[in-house]
Amino acid sequence: MAIDQHAARAADPALGPVISVRGLGIRFRRNRTARRDFKDLFAGRHRRTLPGEFWALRDVSFDVQPGEAIGVVGRNGQGKSTLLKLVAQVLLPDEGEVHVAAGVAPLIEITGGFVNDLTVRENVYLTAGLHGMTRAEIDARYDEMIAFAELEEFQNTPYKHLSSGMKVRIAFAVVSRLEEPILLVDEVLAVGDKAFRDKCYRRIDELLAGGRTLFFVSHSDRDLRRFCRRGLYLDRGELLLDGPIDEVLARYDADHGPE
Fold first, then answer.
1. Domain range for 242
2. Which of 112, 115, 180, 216 could be stapled to 103 by a disulfide with Cβ–Cβ 3.0 to 4.6 Å?
3. What digits encode the pLDDT tens for the residues 145-167?
């Protein structure tokens, strides 16, 4: 589906942002030898940056309206996945705020929420239940999820014995069946084969046509243009550009060359 076919789901600013980010910042330690003294532990969110620490994101601000599809662009290690984890509230910021006005369905890490020693069937019920599905809802959608993942013969196989591609398939099958209004998709779909990626992309088209909001991290210009009208360009943890996806990709290519 070309991007102009999503025009019917254009965001309505009158509804107010579904995600609002203000002055967002988070820092990490480069290694385990960086230490904080007693005073630093109680200095609060505006304490000084210690040796060995770095800002993964700094002073990032933007709003997302319901139904928007946002492509997050940048080199590896520039804060893209960290931003998605902050929106998903997997991480908490050191500075600023993230307000999320609706539920989030995250497809950020393929192993997130899945237990190696449980079977595929048990993991579907566990993961979907943790995301708020009732037992009756999972029962009603279970066959559909397994069929989408093409794992009918592996339902009673321990998750740890699946290939990386199989793990992606069942993760996407579960997350894309959640009713949460916001879908977060990291680069994980690059693991799957082309036929399954195409199936996933058709499913994302369906979700967007239904008014879902999408945060999409990818190094593929084609995929970013397929889904997104708007882009965020992150570099060294800073938001360098927030604008139409074609302008964002052109700026990125000018800075670093095409992928």
1. 3-103+181-256
2. 180
3. 999 999 999 999 999 999 988 98
